[in-house]
Write a structure and sequence with these properties.
By secondary structure, this protein is α/β, with parallel strands linked by helices. The strands form two sheets. Strands 6-7-8-5-9 form a five-stranded parallel β-sheet, sandwiched between helices.
Length: 478
């Protein structure tokens, strides 16, 4: 009887789980889906080309051993890799098959080098004249993983960070390039990795530095003190270098040149680099091509705007850590009105707590509204049909354009009807306008949709709860 591909893969996972760390198993093996088994060739589906390359680099030995144990010495592995969609295939992801590779690792043998330096390396982070190399990591202990709330907006970067913290310099994530808008947690995550590395490897030299401070130190070393070699040697001695806001190097050619040599030395000697920026490497301007190409060697992970649930979770984590009880509706109000910036989100909460404590006011939605009006301009948005469609589709995990698709799939039809229902009740648009915007329908279809939603709310408790949840997300902006 032929072996079942699912059973074969489950047996492999049992062995693998006992031989890798829990976080590695969750990150790199749980997402794998077995597809088929033909002539001792097991095909597994992985979510991206990077995922495939990382498995081949880090886990191919254990994959081969477990597969051969299950299927014999002739067992082979094939990958079905999900590729990113492009404008040329209608926006639909597609898969490509790759065989397992048979690469031999290219590693130089360790070479013993006799230390010839007589004077200790100068540390730009301590007062001149102090000769002992005792590097302060420059890390904020509050910026740890325990205080970093995970969400879809940061899951890839966070998972990569945890993997790095267990084996700095020995993963495919070198450098780890974290990018995203201001206030989304880039510095927090980068420092959390540093803190975790120090916890696992106390002997390693970890350093966080902002690009502006690095630039200032370089100028001092190069132009003022004529000790650029000491500057370079110091940074080349770091085991984990976290460089924040690397986009600040734009146009600074000499600083870029110095960092280029530091980067090369650290990377070639197996040290870890973590870089943050407000833009992806491909979008950075004013940086040398040779430097940008190196930024792409590892993993570029974007931090995006957190969704409503993640924003609420961030606020709940904050008040829990501070030992304060704040009503859920107040936290949800803040999360509904401050959507783009985690720093502003926490700032609004702190301002409200201060106002409550100093003036003896009760924590309420009204107090939160007063604070937000002062902190953020135009916090209240006009409810539009487009906004309603966005909220409804976000709730059901659907792309907005699917509401205009000619389909009778129940989940899409129902989402369209709910969007029409709220557009009628929360906007001043005519039925004809609502129909033309949502699905290119006529006014009779809109009336039918509203009637259907009302009827279902009376007979289906689960449906009613969903509509009320969506209404809750909309009402704070009404």
């Amino acid at each position: 009887m032929a072996a079942d591909y699912k059973e074969v893969w489950e047996n492999c996972l049992r062995i693998i789980k006992d031989n890798v760390t829990p976080i590695s198993f969750k990150t790199w093996f749980e997402p794998i889906v077995p597809i088929k088994l033909e002539k001792n060739v097991l095909t597994i589906q992985v979510p991206s080309p990077f995922f495939y390359e990382y498995l081949e680099e880090q886990y191919i030995d254990i994959l081969r051993k477990t597969l051969r144990k299950e299927l014999g010495a002739d067992a082979k592995l094939e990958y079905s890799v999900i590729m990113e969609h492009s404008g040329y295939n209608g926006g639909t992801p597609y898969t490509v098959k790759f065989p397992t590779q048979n690469k031999t690792e290219l590693k130089n043998k360790p070479v013993s080098v006799q230390a010839v330096q007589e004077a200790p390396i100068k540390n730009p982070f301590i007062i001149p004249g102090i000769k002992k190399l005792n590097v302060d990591p420059q890390l904020n202990p509050e910026y740890n993983f325990a205080n970093f709330v995970e969400g879809t907006c940061n899951r890839l970067a966070r998972s990569a960070g945890i993997t790095i913290s267990q084996a700095p310099g020995k993963t495919a994530f070198n450098p780890l390039f974290i990018y995203g808008g201001s206030g989304l947690g880039k510095t927090h995550l980068a420092q959390a990795i540093g803190i975790e590395v120090k916890r696992h490897f106390p002997e390693k030299i970890v350093l966080y530095v902002n690009a502006v401070k690095f630039q200032t130190q370089f100028v001092d070393a190069y132009f003022k003190h004529n000790n650029i070699n000491d500057f370079l040697h110091f940074y080349q001695s770091i085991d984990l270098l976290i460089l924040d806001d690397v986009h600040e190097f734009a146009g600074k050619e000499k600083t870029q040149d110095a960092f280029f040599h530091i980067f090369n030395h650290l990377h070639q000697t197996g040290k870890q680099l973590i870089l943050t920026s407000d833009q992806a490497p491909a979008d950075l301007q004013g940086l040398e091509k040779r430097l940008l190409s190196r930024f792409k060697w590892g993993l570029s992970a974007e931090l995006t705007t957190p969704d409503f649930e993640t924003r609420v979770a961030i606020l709940k984590k904050k008040v829990y850590n501070d030992g304060i009880v704040v009503p859920n509706d107040v936290l949800e109000y803040i999360a509904s009105n401050i959507t783009q910036n985690i720093r502003e989100l926490e700032g609004a909460l702190i301002s409200m707590l201060a106002q409550s404590t100093l003036n003896g006011k009760q924590l309420s939605v009204e107090l939160a509204s007063e604070m937000i009006e002062k902190l953020v301009k135009n916090t209240k948005k006009d409810i539009t049909i487009d906004y309603i469609q966005k909220v409804v589709c976000e709730y059901f995990g659907l792309p907005v354009d699917v509401l205009n698709a000619k389909t009778r799939k129940r989940e899409i039809v129902q989402a369209r009807q709910i969007a029409m229902y709220f557009s009628k009740s929360l906007t001043k648009a005519s039925l004809s306008t609502i129909g033309s915007v949502i699905g290119n329908k006529d006014h009779a279809t809109v009336l039918h949709a509203c009637k259907t939603v009302n009827n279902l709310m009376e007979t289906d408790k689960r449906f009613k709860a969903q509509v009320e949840d969506i209404q809750k997300k909309l009402k704070y902006n009404a």
